[in-house]
Amino acid sequence: MDKEERKIINQGQEDEMEIYGYNLSRWKLAIVSLGVICTGGFLLLLLYWMPEWRVKATCVRAAIKDCEVVLLRTTDEFKTWFCAKIRFLSLETHPFSSPKSMSDKLSIGRAVCLIENPTEENRQEISKYSQTESQQIRYFTHHSIKYFWNDNIHNFSFLKGLDEGVSCTSIYEKHSAGLTKGMHAYRKLLYGINEIAVKVPSVFKLLIKEVLNPFYIFQLFSVILWCTDEYYYYALAIVVMSIVSIVTSLYSIRKQYVMLHDMVATHSTVRVSVCRVNEEMEEIFSTDLVPGDVVVIPLNGIIMPCDAVLINGTCIVNESMLTGESVPVTKTNLPNPSVDVRGKGDELYNPETHKRHTLFCGTTVIQTRFYTGEFVKAIVVRTGFSTSKGQLVRSILYPKPTDFKLYRDAYLFLLCLVAVAGIGFIYTIINSILNEVEVGIIIIESLDIITITVPPALPAAMTAGIVYAQRRLKKIGIFCISPQRINICGQLNLVCFDKTGTLTEDGLDLWGIQRVENTRFLLPEENVCNEMLVKSQFVACMATCHSLTKIEGVLSGDPLDLKMFEAIGWILEEATEEETALHNRIMPTVVRPPKQLLPESTPAGNQEMAIYEIGIVRQFPFSSALQRMSVVARVLGDKKMDAYMKGAPEVIASLCKPETVPVDFQKVLEDFTKQGFRVIALAHRKLESKLTWHKVQNISRDAIENNMDFMGLIIMQNKLKQETPAVLEDLHKANIRTVMVTGDNMLTAVSVARDCGMILPQDKVIIAEALPPKDGKVAKINWHYADSLTQCSHPSAIDSEDIPVKLVHDSLEDLQMTRYHFAMNGKSFSVILEHFQDLVPKLMLHGTVFARMAPDQKTQLIEALQNVDYFVGMCGDGANDCGALKRAHGGISLSELEASVASPFTSKTPSISCVPNLIREGRAALITSFCVFKFMALYSIIQYFSVTLLYSILSNLGDFQFLFIDLAIILVVVFTMSLNPAWKELVPQRPPSGLISGALLFSVLSQIIISIGFQSLGFFWVKQQPWYEVWHPESDACNTTRSLFWNSSHVDNETELDEHNIKNYENTTVFFISSFQYLIVAIAFSKGKPFRQPCYKNYFFVFSVIFLYAFILFIMLYPVASVDQVLEIVCVPYQWRITMLIIVLVNAFVSITVENFFLDMVLGKVVFNRDKQGEYRFSTTQPPQESVDRWGKCCLSWALGCRKKTPKAKYMYLAQELLVDPEWPPKPQTTTEAKALVRENGSCQIITIT
């Protein structure tokens, strides 16, 4: 086997990884051990931090089949390395592994899932995994999942349950009987214990892991160095800071582990009843469950300990733990295709596709419904970390790294500081050798310069802004479980909104109904609750076709179903347990009208008048994939049963007899949807009398949902939330694009988009209708222009040039951007993704309405938008937006439940006003991070230069001088400058995304030059003073020009020799000037508008700075002997103190002028100018008044070495291209076809239909 082989595991999935095999090498291990001893353990640390180096340094490459260690690397943009040790699972010691009983067991299937072939294949199946006679299976564990070696595919793959490769038929035929004890024991050996084990690490383990962080190791190195140089106070201060930081970090990490452990531990020790093959019941702990076990769901409910598929009975489940939606969901048994001839026998079971029949781990079963002598049963399909809850917990335990330019640039910036430190390191060594300094002092001082350049308080300072932002968000009801994402939210330039419950009110109001009689629509009717309609099939459908249930006597369920049922005023009754036991075929749910609605009958009709009620025999729950739901019901006394169906009008009409659908169906539907109404269609048919109750329980929904009679439409009004238009207007003003992603009808969505201002009245809407390949024809897209307010006489006359242009709120956006919007449904979106890849980016640039989108399609849309470099926010109600909320850069759920862990942000108030608030806070946090980083960079450079200057005269800053600068000035300033609240409104410009940008670099470099210049001025100027001499304990420059305010007691018997040469005139001058410089740059960098409140509103910062200024000014102008003694400051003439004050004032003036005037007003508008939303202004003609600006920009760009670049973001580049593309946007009534021969390349050609 090729030793250099590389294989892929989890191919095509989110956690796809490359895998390499290695074997331990003794000689390499010996060399590494020697290296560890020689480097004093540093090499060991380096190998601990770098798994790739660790494996390559101690192992040699080997074939994956025979390796002892595997090296894994993710295939995403992060390329993260992991390593894992190969372990062996021995089967020979197991009592159930003899060949005789092998036939009782179930091995692992071809796709590493449970096989369906019994007996003979088991031995072969085992041989796939065990290479030796001793029945040993090789495996490794990564991120709580076991990967077993599979001989069939010559690779490792993880063990799957019944969720893949198992047909619905076989679930009933091969798995519904349960497992024997032997099979159960064997599976348990492979699958392990059914638990989502979130072990809370001991404090000691967490402490070791935290302390071995590179940052703390660097601090430890610094502290040891300072102690050798007798900087005890400063070292102690850093140790105290580090301990506080470590304790805080340990507390928060352990608290998160405990919370997660408590969240998943709710089902760990539940006792459950399982059915065995011989129909006997066994009670076991839920931790012993394995895929294939048949579990009995108790009547009083249970918190599900695994993922299981219902095969008998009905359950009402609260899935809020997974989805954040507290509305109870009805789960029915999986359709059995083998019972019904028309069923699809080969359909594979999938937990997502069949989620209405699947009970997910962690969800709460509130109620069960069963029939006489029959238990509610479910087959376990997944256990442990493979369950939906397990996958959710894994995503929390092992999150993907946050890819954000700021953090990448921060590391780059630190490397630059290290390079600067390197220069200082070399300079110090050379200077000390030339001055014949002792070797020990040379080593200490040269290493000390490195500890000065890389500030130890940097990580704490960087997180301060985020912590404060998180606290402010909590105050306005936004909870955050991923604080690092707050910064990323500051970059959002596109927000996707779900419609129902997000942009519009959660509940729908019944506007009216429009029934069909004799294939014609009647006039709309407002009142459904009347005697005329009480016994009509239309009302019967409204009464029965829903998923409502009574929980503790209160009717609950989907809000739409509730409104519909309340409108007819009927009563719903559920059979009690006693009634179910008494009658063999009792209907589980019965609905009946109130007595006052029933028409008065003749005495002869007494029996009929007494009772009119409908029993719901079977329910096929609403499926977002099918866009419909149906029920089988029977009116009491009728021989035949009725099938009722409701759902999306287009879908319902397609399942009805064509002759029952009115001719003007499309027109009527369009009229309602254009007005923004939500329309639901109803259908009905009488079932054959041969269909008995038992047959109905096993019939597939396809057999019921066809050949129906179209009955009419229910028109629901979905009102816009009061705040929606204003919030969207704020976002548009800030040049943040808004996109609607909904499961509703296309035209309704377009209408709502127009109503809320997402699409302006004069904008064109182009509907992209994509059709998949069919009958040998290639895939194609038909382009239709939706009717706008300005009607055109001829449809083909519509041209993008004729559309009136009006900039959105006078923004500087590209003119084309406001002219047209694309709208499409989920099916079209899927076809375009598959067959027209080259059109996807263009459609993403202008796509505004995406209707009838399934949950996974919403996630794909977010990915497609991110692929063209948008920073995407997603705002949804948490029900079916979980995937999209997790995938977006900033997902915010409007669910009321804080427990929803699907979204990084959760708003307590179900209002989209949280979106601008989140972006504002994100921008403020981002700008704060930049300010702090710039300040910390300046702090280290100022201090570095101070020390370098003093090293030139073999001096240094004193221990208490370091202490005063680092603790009294830096920490106080850093933690108070981060307190600026966000600006009160969103502004059009966005903050830069990274530190490596022209404006930021210019800002930092200019301040460095200014600070170095004024420090150098003070340092060299003091030497030119007439009173200057090389300082010695007897020196007293104050005697010559004694100040009136000078305290004579200051110069007392100075007989101690100053070993480190701290006390001198240069040191005192540099200390005072640099102390003021820290405060000057803090003020210069603490900018307010447009992203933060002005710094004068940050009272803590203002107070801190004023106090520090006053204190330093006081000790400089009016020295206090005790303070001077502690800070090791020497006496200088009063005239020089005034000179230092003038230097400081000029420094302050220059710094603040350069930062706030020159940088912001001149360079900001000329060189570093960026149009709103980060887009360039594209226009064919340049107004004359802009020529001066252009000329100035060219000159400055040339002077600063800036050259015009193409936009970095793909969407900006694309916008430029589309401006000169004559074929875009597509003309009305045209078709785009995929090229048949090169379809995989996504190429397409535009054909105009004549």
Poorly predicted runs: 95-126, 130-134, 580-586, 601-609, 788-818, 1040-1056, 1170-1204, 1237-1243, 1245-1250
Supply the helix-strand structural class. alpha+beta
CA-atom Rg in angstroms: 37 Å
Helical stretch tally: 40
Mean pLDDT, nearest integer?
77
Number of strands: 42
**End-to-end C-alpha gap:** 61 Å
Shape: globular
Largest β sheet strand count, sense and barrel closure: 12 strands, mixed
* Residues in β-strands, percent: 15-25%
Which bin fits the share of residues in helices?
A: 40-55%
Strand order of the largest sheet: 20-40-39-38-21-33-37-36-34-35-41-42
Brief characterization of the structure:
The protein is an alpha+beta fold and 1250 residues long. The chain has 40 helices and 42 strands.
Walk me through what this model shows.
- This protein is α+β, with helices and mostly antiparallel strands.
- It contains 40 helices and 42 strands.
- Strands 20-40-39-38-21-33-37-36-34-35-41-42 form a twelve-stranded mixed beta sheet, sandwiched between helices.
- A hairpin with a 2-residue loop joins β22 and β23 (520-521).
- The longest helix is centred in the last third of the chain and has 38 residues, at 914-951.
- It is globular.
- The C terminus is likely disordered.
Question: Tags for this entry?
Answer:
1250 residues, alpha+beta, 12-stranded mixed β-sheet, 9-stranded antiparallel β-sheet, 17% strand, disordered C terminus, membrane, magnesium, metal ion binding, endosome
